[in-house]
Amino acid sequence: MSSSSSDGVDEAVEEWFDEEFDNLVDSLVNDQAKKPKRRAYYERHREEGHNQLWNDYFREHATYPPEMFRRRFRMHKPLFLRIVDALRNEVPYFHQRRNAHGRYGLSTLQKCTAAIRMLAYGQSGDTYDEYLRLGESTALLCLDNFTNAIIQLFGHEYLRRPTADDLQRLLDIGELRGFPGMVGSIDCMHWEWKNCPTAWRGQYTRGSGKPTIILEAVASQDLWIWHAFFGLPGTLNDINVLDRSPVFDDIIQGRAPKVNFKVNNHNYRMAYYLSDRIYPKWSTFIQSISLPQTPKAQLFAQHQEAVRKDVERAFGVLQARFAIVKNPALLWDKEKIGRIMRCCVILHNMIVEDERDRFTQYDTNEFESGESSRSSQVDVVSSTESLSNVDEMRGIRNQIRDQQIHHRLKADLVENIWQKFGNLDE
After folding, report:
1. What is the model's pTM?
2. How far apart are CA 123 and CA 119, in angstroms?
């Protein structure tokens, strides 16, 4: 009996010891988990970063000339300072504030420069830590606030639908190039999404084996992007994107200005885009001719394919100007990726507006002298109020998709190109 009782006491002591030991370990682990972790702080001397940036680019006799500024900031200095002033006055994040010790924080120039450099070079957030003196998380926060501010302050102007004056200028340039009634060219571009969630990879991956996001755009001769529809998965082709695109919403709903133009003595009332052969044969799309046999068809195919390259050139300039949309997207959040694309398109249009007078090749002053010489006209008198009648909207949609008008317009354009350029090419 004494042996069995001693064994029971030993077991009870061991159970008590194990229980107390587990409670002690749990309490130590919980205390360690509850203990707040202090963020590592590095004294970066941000004032020196601002002074260095100011002396290099913004003082009266800066270290680097304007050509170097244009190459590194992707725009001329007055345009960049206009953006900086707008963000400083309108967005609280870009105000330079004092902390509790009375020390100034990062300047507006430092924040905007960090965001522009990340967009322009497509590099990580800590790339410019040694020069601008701001950490990676701060640089990413600058980029996020910068993209939101650009969309909010400049999106309504630089991502607008063409006004009546814009349309008339586009029609005049199209007529000079042999395509009366043409207002731009349309196509799609893919942006690789490196950190696409695994559950979405099948939805966003095509034959290349890499997930992509699609941008549908309409561009004019000066590379201005008039329409940007971004966010659809890369498995879709151009026709699937067109079915979901709002590119014709203003026309269907009656908000777009009316257009009248004449080709080969035939009148038309709806402008069109130049496209590649995947797009449907609608009255609003004009494609090239596959395997042209006659001289007229060959000349038309040559001019159509040359003019249609406007949107391809716009994609190339956009990617060369902002390497972040050329390199694979590193963000996980699709909405942030979409805001970056919209911001880059807006900045691209701002740069085009600032610089296009220096390289414009077409002079439309001849149309200003007399209205009779202009075969393409915007009807500014007609109402642009939204349509509420379903039958009227269905009728406009049928006109957009009319294949008979497409074939007749294409035949008239072949004749017009031959009459305008046939003798010159001989």
Report:
1. 0.86
2. 8
